[in-house]
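Board notes (copied after class):
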Amino acid sequence: MRVAIPHTLDNDTVRERLRSKSHEIGDSIPGGGNVRTAWPNEDRMTMDIMAMGQNLHAHVDLEPGQLVFEVPLPPALSFIEPMVAGAIQKGGQKLLAPPKD
């Protein structure tokens, strides 16, 4: 599953916001989940996600003007793809939002 979230930020700002809020990603997963993140390079954040009894390996690519979430859903979870895509859209917007003072 591929979900693109458009934005008007520069990639340095996007990186900073993703790094500072990555601990919140699990809160956006329907039913909750545990997420570990890593940065193999400056334009990709990888995620190991444990949710609904499944382990998923996903990533987020920083592209000019958009974040692209790639989440491979196993066949057992394909029926919830619309719900997951909606949660990614909503959660992605929160990750990109400016920090609250």
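Comment from the instructor: Strands lie at 2-6, 34-41, 44-51, 54-63, 66-70. The mean pLDDT is 86.
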